[in-house]
Amino acid sequence: MTESRLRERFGLFAEALLTGVWIAMAALPLVTYPAAFAAGARHLRRHLSHQPSGFRLFAADVRAAARRGWLVGAGGWVACWLIWLDVSAVRSGLPGGPLAGAAGALALCGSAVAGLRAAALWEPGASWRALLAAAGRRTVLDPAGSFLLVGGVAVVAVSAWFSPPLAIPVLGALAAAALAVEERYGRRRAAAGHPTTSLD
């Protein structure tokens, strides 16, 4: 590997860690985490394509994505609450509790992956509803990429359990992983003769 290539990859890694800090700051209102991830992914896309980037552009993207993205964030918290109810049902020994708990956990994982995939392709003016619907299809059609993102979410969770501050920069790596998964999916579709868009 050439020195310039190594420097470029290390630069991307450092940029992803910095982006994680920005994502964490933008997600502090709790319902803005989809907008924060969308802005973080868009920042990394600009960085990779050597376009102008920086915190001001990131902040502008957060504001644009949060206009409708806060509803997605609120829906995510409702989903977490429903999963908590499922877990409570399992612990209380209600009939069907284990099945409901497993189905709920699977639904939560699928929703998280679809949310990350949608955020990775968000652009100003895009419809969150359309992005999420298309991302849900890609979550099912691309299980390998979806499992990679589940692993990324697990890394963030383990990092938070081990040392909460460590999970903050890892959020940027998760956004980069979502970008990579979507890029891989798009290339495979194009190679198969099916050009893809964010709504495929």
From TrEMBL:
Keyword field contains Transmembrane: yes
Keywords, in A-Z order: Membrane, Transmembrane, Transmembrane helix
Domain of life: Bacteria
Membrane spanning residue stretches: 20-44, 65-84, 96-119, 140-160, 166-181
UniProt protein name: DUF624 domain-containing protein
Organism: Streptomyces ochraceiscleroticus
